Amino acid sequence: MHLRIAHLYPELLNLYGDRGNLITLQRRCEWRGIACSVQPVSLNQPFVAADYDLVFIGGGQDYEQNLLHEDLLERKGPAIRSAVEDGLVFLCICGGYQLMGHEYVEHDGRSIVCLGAIDIRTEAQTKRMIGDTIYHSNFLAGKGLSPQLVGFENHSGRTWLGPAVQPLATVIKGGGNNGKDGTEGAIYRNVYCTYSHGSFLPKNPSMADWLIYLALKQHNELDWPLATIDDTLSENARNHLLTCK
Ligand code: GLN
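A: This is the predicted complex of the input protein with glutamine.
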């Protein structure tokens, strides 16, 4: 088996160790004897959905989001939207999450038209939401996985989910999507989004396994759950974050 990952705009969207999500996916594949390759896809490069099993897009400041958004819309938009509808697996972090929606309104009122691949909308405010986070995911609990997600957030955007999109989790500690409705992240078809940097997957390895399984089963026969890995170190880090004030 071979997991083929596309990394969108690696040199522009990579905050707070977002690249660590790819290292985690690679290692958890390799430890199970599964091949894994990561292909950077950036400015002026086409996105060919059929070449990939999973797409990763990290976070970035407003400046980078402005810089790449025309390329994202014009050059990659149609392929990304149809890939989302076809069930391709995506992991989108913070700024990348926002760009999957309809619009990102910056706090000076300027609007960045986004992909419209998922039914969400983001409005920035001057006060940023910054800090360690803890969330509870009924979605993960439903997969027999630990429902708690830990991470770190730093964003001015407040995201609101449309009716077709379900939240990834509810907030226990932190701001989450908008600091108001208690939701965090988003799930639409096989698109998983979160405001969690840190990076997200090394701190939440069961989420990594779910994404690997979902991406590989599109073209392979495999069972859930995947073969067990010794996660003592990750669990120690998680327990520390779950208990520290
Ligand atoms: N620029 C966006 C915001 O401030 C996203 C920031 C990020 O990816 N950390 O909300």
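Residues 62-85 form the longest helix (24 residues). The chain is about 30% helix and 30% strand.
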